[in-house]
Amino acid sequence: MPANLPPRSLTVRTLAGIAGAIAIVAIGLLANNVVREMQILQSARAGSAQWSLAQAEVEFLDFAHAVSTFDEPPTTIKRRFDVFYSRIQTIEIAKVYQVLREDPSFATHLAHAHAFLDDAVPIIDLHDPEFSAQKDALRAMVDDARTTMRELSNSSIGIFAEKADAQREAIASTVRRLVTAMLVLIGALATSVIYLNRLNILNIQRQRGQEETVTRMNTVIETSLDGIIVSDDAGRIIEFSKAAENIFGYTADEAIGRDVVSLIIPRDQRNAHRVDMDRLTGGGTMQVINAGRMRIDAMRKDGSVFPVELSIQTAKRHNTRIYVAYLRDLVQSVAAEQELVMARDAALAGEKLKTDFLATMSHEIRTPLNGLLGNLALMKETRLSPPQDRYIQNMDTSGRLLMNHISDVLDITRYEAGKLPICIVPMNISILMQDIIDNQSAMAQTSNTTLSWHWIGQPRDWVMSDPDRVQLVLINVISNAVKFTNGGEVCVTAEVLASNDHTRICVRDTGPGMSPELTRHVFDDFVTGNPAYNREVGGTGLGLSIAKRFVKALGGTITVDTALGQGSVFEVTFPMPVAEKPVDDYAMPTAPEQPQHPLDILVIEDNDINRILAREMLENAGHTVSEAHNGETGVSVARNIRFDLIFMDISMPVMDGRTAARLIRQGHGKSANTPIVALTAHALPADLDSFVADGMVAALTKPLTKAGLLDVLHKVTNVPELCNTTTPYQSPAYAKLTKRFIAETDSFVGWVQTPDLPLSDIADQAHKAAGSASTFQVPDFAEHLSAIAIAARANDTAAVTAGLATLPQDWDTAKKGLGAQD
Fold it and tell me: Ranges for the PAS domain (predicted)?
């Protein structure tokens, strides 16, 4: 029998044992009762109680006959009386007649018989002559007793009959109980046999299962790639798997019986491990027991130390505690991990390089664009001939198109960084749609295309969404349809879906459609269509990919259904819950006709051209402007003078804008609480967030425009835009700036030809000169300088040398253009 039976089996076995014991005891008692009853019956037959009573009556009758005839000698008659007398005495005292004596009727008759004897004894005791003389009296007494003896015999017969019936019934009942008990015992024995047979089968199956489990475990242990070491409570090894042999270099025979700490733990760590083992032996605990996987150092047979992953579990064997350690060689894993880390670092470095490149290019491109678009905005306010006005408008359009391309790339970067800002506000989708249609109508007219839009079903004007993102998505999708449709129709529809919180906008065109291959990639980056399209239309191939990113960021979907020669249908679905119409109805504050509350503004900018351009725009708006050419100077000025607003460039020598902003905020100067607005070409999300963390309240992305400056003024200071029609070109300021630019650039071109100049200095000065060149509308020269600056930052000495070789000639050409402007 197994030592560890399940509780149910133990209960069944206990109950079966109890039932069997009860059955055995019952059978023993019943058998004893049957034997006793049989002995009683046997004893009754041996005593011949019933025969004795009948014989007593016979003897009485013999005596009565002798008395009646009196033909026998007196001695014979007396002897017959003595026999009858002794028979009655026996009936009165024998145990066998106890049952008869307890019967009232029998007891009465027996008493009468005894009385007869008592009365007859005196006569029987007389001498023969006297006895004979009393024969008549004796004969009368005998006649009186005759009835008594008959009744005595008859009553005994009835009593004995009843007693015999009762005994037979008792024996029958006892036999029945005995049979029942034997059947119960037989049933219990049969149940026990069946149960024991089942236990035997279960034990055989359990033994077979245990053998199979042991076989499997041994197979697992022997084939496991992880080493398995089993040790006892004292730390002695009792099992050492094949994998452990391969890992540590010991054979199982060499390892078994040895101390596990001295065998596989490096020498400099053994004391700590032995302290843990001693604490464990003393009844304490080890932190590594049942603590999951952990990494430690182990030692091979040759003494080399290597990393392993260790997991220790406890178990019991023969009432003693054992420890099972699973060890995995991590040499290859650590090497692979290091390769992954290196690959990750390389990927992160590449990502950072890409981000830095985008930030740098944003700065490099936006800085000259700042000068270009800013000066164009100022020139628009001067007296221009119609051709000049047209040229300036074309230049402004081209510049803004370039700015849009830059913004597209930066938007992708924001999205991939997971920092695309979403601002959900109430918006009028109908007004937004009409503005987009109006914006694209001119392009549609140039291609003789009809452009229209309308609601399907009940209109819903005011909804909750991000108007800027929705506008960009719809402009990209609609402009794409207009661009590829020539002499056809573009129809835009808006519809509130049954879900009641989504709006679907469909853009259908009658253009050439797309092939299945192009359809699969139409939302990918830089997909511009097939070559036939490329000959007729342009674009960067980013519009639809950016649109899809923005739609996804807003929680919507965008799909296309198209076929070659059958046009295209773009469906854009936005979550747009209904919104209440704002009180201001999106009306912007109107500018007062007269200046109000001029501001004292500090502009901290290292680029002279950009600094002067910002000053001219702000002064034209009626404000007072102070300047600082680097962050350190700006901090000093802000400490001593209280300004209403500070414009802070980010990339500056001596001290950058972020450091300057922190120092102004942390100091106790007069402008410590003045709003600071970042001026930067670095438009990445992480940069904008860091500017706010440094204490700046807003960021103005270059190129600077008058509208942008005034909008920031309104938002930051709550001061309406101040109007002034004066321009820098109505004063000699522009001419002075031009002369200064030429002088500074002459100096730079001469200085940069000096041998062995540090590339970092060349990069900084070339970048600064490029910004000024862009502002003064010499784009070829500005591009040349930007290329030199980029090559210098990349430590590309050959490219820098090549660029510097042609720089004087390009500068001479640029100066001639500046002379023509004058």
Answer: 213-284
Q: What does the chain come to in residues?
A: 822
Task: Classify burial at 708, counting beta carbons within 10 Å of its beta carbon; exposed 0-12, middle 13-18, buried 19 or more.
Answer: middle
Q: Are 675 and 643 in contact (CB under 8 A)?
A: no
Long-range contacts of 14-23 (CB under 8 A, 24+ apart): 16/188, 16/191, 16/192, 16/195, 17/192, 19/184, 19/188, 19/191, 20/185, 20/188, 20/189, 20/192, 23/181, 23/182, 23/184, 23/185, 23/188
- Residue 462 pLDDT: 92
- Taking only Cα atoms into account, the Rg of the chain, rounded to an integer number of angstroms, comes to 62
Tell me the mean pLDDT in the region 601-620.
Answer: 85
Sequence-distant (≥ 6) Cβ neighbours of residue 404 within 8 angstroms: none
Instruction: Tell me which residue of 457, 351, 369 sits closest to 701, measured CA to CA.
Output: 369
DSSP 457-470: SS---EEEE-HHHH
The mean per-residue pLDDT over the stretch 215-242 comes to: 80
- The CATH class, in words, for 425-528+540-575 is alpha beta
Q: How confident is the model at residue 127 (pLDDT cuts 50, 70, 90)?
A: confident
pLDDT tens digit sequence for 479-532: 889 988 999 999 999 999 987 789 999 999 998 988 888 888 888 877 766 443
Mean pLDDT in residue range 748-759: 88
| Alpha-carbon gap, residue 17 to 651, rounded angstroms | 96
Instruction: Provide the b/e sequence for 46-55 (b: ≥16 CB within 10 Å).
Output: eeebbebbee
- List, for residues 664-697, the tens digit of each pLDDT value: 999 889 999 999 998 876 555 556 777 888 888 8
Are 681 and 410 in contact by the 8 Å Cβ rule? The answer is no
At 17, is the pLDDT very low, low, confident or very high (cuts 50, 70, 90)? low
Percent of the chain with pLDDT over 70: 79
Nearest to 790 by CA among 373, 374, 404, 367: 367
Mention the CATH class of domain 600-704.
alpha beta
DSSP string, 32-76: HHHHHHHHHHHHHHHHTHHHHHHHHHHHHHHHHHHHHH--S-HHH
Report which of residues 629 and 15 the model is more confident about: 629
pLDDT over 90 at 713, yes or no: no
**CA–CA separation, 593 vs 596, rounded Å?**
9
Question: How do 227-231 and 237-240 pair as beta strands?
Answer: antiparallel
**CA-to-CA distance for 666 and 627, rounded, in angstroms?**
21
CA–CA separation, 745 and 536 (whole Å):
41
CA count, 13 A, side-chain hemisphere, 516: 0
* Residue 80, both tokens: 């017959």
Spell out the alpha helix ranges (H) of 292-416.
Answer: 331-379, 386-416
Q: Do domains 46-196 and 600-704 have the same CATH topology?
A: no
Does the domain made of 342-410 have the CATH classification 3.40.50.300?
A: no
- CA distances 782 to 108, 778, 820, Å, are 159, 6, 17
* Residue written as token pair 């039932």: 19
Map out the domains of the chain as residue ranges: 46-196, 225-334, 342-410, 425-528+540-575, 600-704, 732-818
Structure tokens at 748: 């730079």
Q: Options 2.40.160, 3.30.420, 1.20.120, 1.10.8; which CATH number does 46-196 get?
A: 1.20.120
Interatomic CA distance for residues 286 and 268, integer angstroms: 19
Any idea of the CA torsion for 690, 696, 700, 701, to the nearest 10 degrees?
-20
Range picked from 407-411, 557-561, 779-783 for highest mean pLDDT: 557-561
| 76 CB-contact burial (10 Å; exposed 0-12 / middle 13-18 / buried 19+) | exposed
The CATH-assigned architecture of domain 225-334 is 2-Layer Sandwich (3.30)
Residue 603 has pLDDT above 90, yes or no: yes
Q: End-to-end CA distance of the chain: give it in Å, rounded.
A: 116
What span, in angstroms and rounded, lies between the C-alpha atoms of 333 and 310? 14
| Rounded Cα gap, residues 530 and 520, in angstroms | 13
